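Worked example (supplementary).
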Amino acid sequence: MKSIDDITAALHGYDPQALSVSQVNEFLTQLVQPVSGDGSQDVFLFDALGRVLATDVISPINVPAHNNSAMDGFAFDASQLQEGQALTLCVVGTALAGKAWQGKVNAGECLKIMTGAILPDNLDTVVPQELTQIQNAHDVTRIAIPANLLKAGDNRRLAGEDLMQGQPALKAGQHLTPAALGLLASLGLPDVRVHRRLRVAYFSTGDEVMSLGEAPREGAVYDSNRYTVFGLLKRLGCEVIDMGVVRDDPALLEAAFAKAAHDADAIITSGGVSVGEADFTKTMMKKLGDVAFWKIAMRPGRPMAVGRIGKSVLFGLPGNPVAVMVTFLAFVRPALLRMMGSTAQPTPMLRAKCLEPLRKKAGRTEYQRGFVSNAADGTLQVRITGNQGSGVLSSMVQGNGLIVLHHTQGNVALGDEVDVMMFDGVI
Ligand code: AMP
Ligand code: MG
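After joint prediction of all chains, the assembly is encoded as:
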């Protein structure tokens, strides 16, 4: 395990007083490793949503299992089609979905077939019912297929075209989405092996922070950070360990950090890491762990502490509620995903036309809360959601994404395109 000093020594241009966002992420990819190797479990599909696959899933069967029809219509052998000529075939039976039709279809014949019904071996093409003319005469039904409508293989689903027996259907590290659950079910698998949930402990610090239920006192604020962090972690599928608000008292802080480090893979705190904090949070982090204290060239979210306490990874986030969410999205979330063994790639950013000019200083990354919508012409546009103060949570509630103004970027003029990191469904 590399020490914090080892990792920072290898960071090009490392300056703890002015770290760039990309340097923080580079640091974190060195610091955190998948922890999920030390435990996996079999869970039923209904319990597997949002979990991370621990092993590749090899298809035990072909899906679909047989060549079958993609339409309600008539199955026939397309070698009988001749350029520019209609084809008339005699209907010899009906194949229904769910049971194989017994019999033989000869040249000049076809089989009425329903969607999903097995296609007999010597038939390769299905003409949809609505493209045929049906003629009934003397107890015999014939269909006429107009010229030049079809080619061989039309409206046929091939055995194994979705999932091939013996091939990996899903890879280890796959996040189990609704589509992935359906796919596993289509293989007939009732359960699936997933990594154990990542355990994350979190607490808020600061004597000015009140727990819910406490009578309001002057100069104090209710603890919102624990609730945002709780929600962010739950959405990621973590096992959460809520440790409350911890008073600014060395004994209480030491006990909280020790318990968190014992119980959890990662610890998230909020507050107490800014410069000139007259509190014991930083002192205790230094005493108990291997921790770097940074000023990051970003807004909001400048101060942050990152390192290890025991085997747990520590994220000491700033206190301001928007800064907590932004640093979580920018740094903590990708790091936790890596720890969970997930191979999920970051959601691509959108480009949207900015509906107002934005002031931006080059040399830091800024995250403004934005609301993206479609303009009348269908293109994407974004407006900022009011007051952008780092304590103004309503800007996060009203927004659906973060406008990311990159490190080297300067002012944005009205109508300029900007990058937006969408967060609907994530936060
Ligand atoms: P700090 O990073 O400790 O200097 O905190 C900055 C500001 O964030 C404080 O002045 C508080 O107003 C606010 N704050 C800190 N912790 C919390 C919390 N848990 N919930 C809501 N606001 C907080
Ligand atoms: Mg404080």
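Two points are worth noting when inspecting this output. Residues 78 and 151 are 7 Å apart (CA to CA). The chain has four domains: 4-39+196-339, 41-63+161-195, 68-157, 350-422.
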